[in-house]
C-alpha cells in the first residue's frame, strides 16, 4: 500500500543562486510524484483515502545531466502543462500576475489535482447511493414447458410434461436499507475524503503559484545577468581598444594587449552563456503555463524591490495553521480514517432492509395483481476473523494518518520559520549588495582613468572588472533570492495566490 512520504529539509534551497531553476522546482514539486492515493470503494470494503499530490520539501540532490533524473522530471505533473495555443510569430507579453493566472489554468499538476478532486466527489456520490432506495422496472413475456418427472411427479395416466404455456409479468422492484452501520460510516468517510481532496486541490494551486512565480523571477534574473554581461563586454572591448592603442604607441607592454583580448573574449563567453540560460528559462516558463517552447515570450522585467508589509513570524505561525490547505487535507484524511474504523466495526452489527415488488401477471387478457414485501434482519454470527482483521488494518491506517497530521502541524511551523529566516536574511543581503555594486562601479571607473593616464597597470583594471562582475552577480542573486523568499513565505503561510498578488503588485 503506497503511503505519502515526507522528508524534512530546509526551504532555503530555493534561494540558493548556485542551484538551477529545474533543481529548485524539482525540490518543491517532485514530492508530488511521491504523494500517493490509498483508495477503495464501499463495494470492495477496503480502506481508501483519496488525495491529490501535496508538496513536501525533500532532498534536492538532483542531477540534471542524468538521463534517469530527466525522465523522472518529465513525469512530474507540476513541471508540465497542456499546451493549447498555436505557435505565433508575435511574442506574447506576460506580467507575473498573468503568468501565474495562466499557470493555474494549464499547469498539469493543477489539472491532475482538479480531476482527482472530481473523482473523490464521484466516490462520495457512489457511497451515498448505497443508502438511498433502488427502484427498477421489469416487463417479461415468458414461454415455458415444465417436466413433471423432473420434480418427481411420475403418476400413471398423467402426461410427462405440462405442455407449452406462456404468461406475462410486469413489475416494479424497490430495495431500501433501513439500517446498515457500515454503509453509513463509509459514506461519511467518503465525504471526508472529498473534503480532503478539495483541500489538496487548493494546495496544488499554491504549488503552481510558487513554481510559475519562481520560473518568472528566474527569467528576470537571467535577463539582468545578460544585460550585465553585455555591459561588461562593451567595457572589455573598449579597454581592449585602449590597450591596443597604448601598446601601438609603445606606452604599455604587449602583455597588456594580450590580457585585454583575453578579458574581451571571456566577456563574450559570458554573454553567450547568459543568453543561452535565459532562453532555457523562457522554455521552462512556457512548459509551466501551457505554451510551446518555441513560442516567443516577453516578460515584464520591472519587478521592483518591494519589502514585505508589516508582518511578524508569530502572526504568520498562528494564521498558517488555519490557512494551510495541506494541513486541512491531512485533518480530513485522519477523520476519514477514523470513520473507516467505525465502518469496519459496524460489519458485526445487524442490518435491516426492505425489498418489495408490485405489478401484474397473467395471460390472455387476464392480469392479476402480484406483489412481494420482505423485511429482513441480517446478523453476522461467524466470519472467520475477517471483521477483526479489517478493523486491525483500519486502526493501523488511522494511527498512521494521525501521526502524519501531527507531524504536518510541526512541519507548518518549521516551514514558516525557515521561510521567515530566508526572507530577513535575503532582505539584508539586498541592501549590502546594492552598496557593494555602487562601490565596485566607482572603483572600476577610477581604475580605468588611472590606466588611461598611465598611472596604473592593466592588472588593476582587470581586478576591478572582476569585482564589478562579482558585485553585479551578487546583487542579481540577492534580488532573486529575496523575491523567491517572499513566494516561499506566502506558500508556507498557506496564501500563495493572495501573497503573490499583494507582495508583487506593480
Question: Please, could you describe this protein's structure?
Answer:
By secondary structure, the protein is an alpha+beta fold. The protein has one domain (11-137, 175-503): Outer membrane efflux proteins (OEP) (Up-down Bundle). It has helices at 21-29, 31-34, 67-74, 96-106, 108-129, 181-248, 254-288, 313-323, 325-345, 386-452, 458-493, 496-503, and strands spanning 92-94, 134-144, 165-179, 297-299, 351-363, 366-378. The strands form 2 sheets. A 4-stranded antiparallel beta sheet has the order 2-3-5-6, with no helix packed on it. The protein has a two-stranded parallel ribbon with strand order 1-4. β5 (351-363) and β6 form a beta hairpin. The longest helix is centred in the middle third of the chain and has 68 residues, at 181-248. Mean pLDDT is 80; it is low at 1-73.
